[in-house]
Amino acid sequence: MAKDIASLIGTAVAALLYVLVTAAVMGLVPHGALARTGAPFVDAFEAMFPQNAWAGGVFAAVAVISGIGALNGWTLIVTEASRAIAQDGLFPRPFAWTDRDNTAWFGIVVGAALPSLLMLWRYTSTLGLTVFTYLVNLTVVTVAIPYFFSAVAQLTYLVSRRRRVQGWRLARDLAIAGASVLFSMWVTFACGYQVVYQAVVVILTGVVLYALLNAHRQRVGEVSEPTDLPAHEPPFAPAHDDGTGRKDAGRRDLNRGGANQEVA
User: Fold this and answer.
1) Are 160 and 127 in contact (CB under 8 A)?
2) Cβ contacts of residue 95 below 8 Å, gap of 6+?
């Protein structure tokens, strides 16, 4: 519980810091220059220290260091997510390969090589810039959709009262879940109709791949196969009177062999 609260506080502080810094840059750099620049924070530092030519260079170096750290973190996140999915049999097996230190080396190589090649293409051709921008927008949508379903699941969990929270905690959780739903919808809408349409195609393709992988897991016995309901047996027995004036609805649970077990 304490770790969850610390994560929420850290995320809120980081978001607030981003908003304040962005507002400061908008106040320091003229609108025309801000619309044309590719490094607004460097321009902001140069505006703060106009007599020191080194200010922009120092901040650019700090930004590079920060970017490298963020890139390493995201690479590890992608690697662990890929390994978890591969261990569940829903992703290619090589992503679950590990070395003697239990490091998913294949996922790290792929997660580092593909973005590097994409960035190289982005800076060497105009088409590369177009593809890079398109993939960024597509990634935003494909990430926003799982966030949306997670937030909706949280709303369902709270409204159904399966999680016994009341008072300000219930209001807080409902507010966070509702804001997450609205934010996910807004991000999806802001990416444009074309990107959303193509993201849906990508998701549907993933559903087809999931069906094939799940069928393979059932065939090799990694997961249990679904049991068909016999046509002549109802899933629930009708309610009956036990002689005390109290009606008892018997439930029938079908096992894998097709036998029925009545639970009073």
Assistant:
1) no
2) 82, 83, 85, 86, 104, 106, 107, 110
Distance between CA 226 and CA 187 in Å, rounded? 37
pLDDT, tens digit (0-9, with 9 covering 90-100), for 97-121:
988 888 889 988 988 888 788 777 7
Residue labelled with tokens 């992503």: 95
- Taking only the tens place, the pLDDT of each residue in 149-193 is 988 988 888 888 776 767 777 888 888 888 889 988 998 888 888
Cα–Cα distance measured from residue 57 to residue 95, given in angstroms and rounded to the nearest whole number: 39
- State the Cα–Cα distance between residues 155 and 140, nearest whole angstrom: 22
Which tokens sit at 260?
């029925």
How many Å apart are CA 8 and CA 15, to the nearest integer? Answer: 11
